[in-house]
Amino acid sequence: MVARPAVKNDLFLRACRRERLDRPPIWIMRQAGRYMPEYQEIRKKTSFLGLCKTPELATQATLLPIDLLGLDAAILFSDILIPVEAMGLSLEFTEHKGPKFLNPVRTDADIERLAVPDARKDTGFVGDAVRLINTRLDGRVPLLGFSGAPFTLATYMVEGETSKEFTKVKRLIFSNPRGYRALMEKVTRTVIDYLEMQVEAGIHAYQLFDTWAGSLCAEHYREYALPYTREVVRALARHGIPSILYINGTAALLDLMDQAGTDVLSIDWRLPLDKAIPRISPEKAVQGNLDPVVLLTTEEALAGEVRRVLAGVGDRPGYIFNLGHGILPETPMAMARSLVRMVQNGL
Ligand code: CP3
């Protein structure tokens, strides 16, 4: 049985179900991160991967933004690349440069060698973290789990690091479509098992990060990324928990994103919500889409932009306030606090 605790503040879950609310719930992508001095303190104790793999520390990091900012949802502290490491790729996080795979996937033999891990055995620390977080949250707010969407995970596996042009993964798609399909099938099975484990451990909802899908044109997204995302969403549907799809580069893909089957679409900052919403099915909830850079400016500018985002939503039910991408490490805590106050107490 799934031990999913009941929550006192259920605004986030009600927004996912498109209930009419007095105010929108707010959480922030990358809400536990380097912009918080308290995160830096926890981080000093170990490496980033060490932090992800130590349930006690991952729990402390997850709870920081709930305790310090009073957000309406918690998100598991981890990284999208954790299950990929378990597929057999050696992962390093270098200061300032981000993730790096030492043995990226380039050939059919590389693809064949990849394991489909047993999530409970090979990434059991994530399930342990989910259980410990729920114990410490004690039902204050819901807990989001997450995974990278298959395409974004494949970009890291093939490129070996964060990329600008995505030449290597696109070359694989176009010159070895069979190999690409074999890779995506393994990644998709890995993602499904990884999310199933999180559901069993007690998450209340999950978000799929397809951060780099915006590097594809709509036709290629339809053919090479969307089917795998749909497969994940379809497999998880039996659990009945809300699902969110995030893409960075929403504008060209929104109509197809709508077909992925998630309950919520998370919109980046480039497309104003009054332009996005008419392209979204009425039964779907919407999340986003403040430009994270606004948090580096002034209270006045922030208030103006929060007002603009909320005006774009109008009185459509089913809206979750968030940024259009992760909060930047340079963000002052005071500005994050102001944002939460503006959304929760009004402007
Ligand atoms: O939202 C949250 O607070 C939960 C934790 C979370 C992290 N990464 C923590 C993290 C989540 C949901 C992610 C997802 C993730 N990881 C994505 C998709 C979302 C997005 O931002 O587009 C991607 C592409 C990654 C891969 C990744 N991890 C990169 C590119 C980097 C380096 C960039 C950077 O900001 O340093 C990371 C590292 C990372 N993931 C940090 C954190 C808090 C910083 C690590 C540190 O403490 O040094």
TrEMBL record:
Domain of life according to the entry: Bacteria
Q: Sorted alphabetically, which InterPro entries does this protein's record hold?
A: UROD/MetE-like_sf, Uroporphyrinogen_deCO2ase_HemE, Uroporphyrinogen_deCOase
From the UniProt record, give the pathway where this protein acts: Porphyrin-containing compound metabolism; protoporphyrin-IX biosynthesis; coproporphyrinogen-III from 5-aminolevulinate: step 4/4
Which residues does substrate bind? Answer: 30-34, 79, 156, 211, 325
- The EC number of this protein is 4.1.1.37
Q: Which reaction does it catalyse?
A: uroporphyrinogen III + 4 H(+) = coproporphyrinogen III + 4 CO2
Q: In this UniProt entry, which residues are annotated as the site Transition state stabilizer?
A: 79
Under the heading PROSITE patterns, the entry gives: UROD_1 (PS00906), UROD_2 (PS00907)
List where in the cell it is found: Cytoplasm, Cytosol
User: One GO MF term, please?
Assistant: uroporphyrinogen decarboxylase activity
UniProt keywords (A-Z) are: Cytoplasm, Decarboxylase, Lyase, Porphyrin biosynthesis
* One CC-aspect GO term: cytosol
Is Cytoplasm tagged as a keyword? Answer: yes
* The keyword DNA-binding is assigned to this record: no
Domain Uroporphyrinogen decarboxylase (URO-D), chain residue ranges per copy: 25-34, 144-160
Q: Name one GO biological process term.
A: protoporphyrinogen IX biosynthetic process
- How does the record describe its quaternary structure? Homodimer.
Q: What is its biological role?
A: Catalyzes the decarboxylation of four acetate groups of uroporphyrinogen-III to yield coproporphyrinogen-III.
NCBIfam families this protein is in? hemE
The family assignment reads: Belongs to the uroporphyrinogen decarboxylase family.
Q: What is the name attached to this protein's record?
A: Uroporphyrinogen decarboxylase
Q: Which organism is it from?
A: Leptospirillum ferrodiazotrophum
